[in-house]
Design a protein that fits this description.
It is a single chain. This protein is of the alpha/beta class. It is built from 4 helices and 5 strands; from the N terminus they run E-E-H-E-H-E-H-E-H. The chain has a single domain (12-117), classed as Transcription Regulator spoIIAA (2-Layer Sandwich). The protein has helices at residues 36-48, 66-81, 93-101, 114-117; strands at residues 14-19, 22-27, 53-57, 85-89, 110-111. It has a 5-stranded mixed beta sheet. The protein is globular, with a radius of gyration of 14 Å.
């Protein structure tokens, strides 16, 4: 089997659903060199299908490596190019610390849950000013 072919454990790495105008992309595994391309491909496919406003649900995630951070930056740029929005749902302090150490915590909107992230209906491009630091 080639490394690029999906393996059975990668078939449910990413699940997407709609909530209050947002496309929630739930990542069910740690975001690393193996899973990052799967997540990125899923988001790109959703963008191509016309989705624009995303919540990346990292609730089940306990670890993000540099590949994972790079993938999140890459999908943010793609979403911004389509005048979309990206929010992160993550309550894990260790995962948030990875964003802080990587210098990315202040340029993303973090929420403790998907419910909190999707409370407001998306408006316009939430990434128009990205990567400027959030207040």
């Amino acid at each position: 089997m080639h490394h690029n072919e999906p393996t059975p454990e990668h078939l449910d790495v990413v699940v997407d659903y709609e909530s209050n105008g947002w496309t929630v992309v739930r990542v069910s595994v740690d975001v690393d060199i193996c899973s990052a391309p799967v997540v990125q491909e899923a988001v790109v496919r959703l963008l191509e299908d016309g989705r624009r406003h995303f919540v990346l649900d990292l609730s089940p995630v306990t670890f993000v490596d540099s590949m994972g951070l790079g993938m999140i930056v890459a999908i943010t740029k793609r979403i911004r190019a389509h005048a979309g929005s990206l929010l992160l749902a993550c309550s894990n302090d260790h995962v948030r610390k990875v964003f802080k150490v990587g210098g990315l915590y202040s340029v993303y909107a973090f929420y403790d849950s998907v419910d909190a992230a999707t409370r407001r209906v998306p408006e316009g491009s939430g990434l128009a000013d990205w990567p400027h630091r959030r207040a």
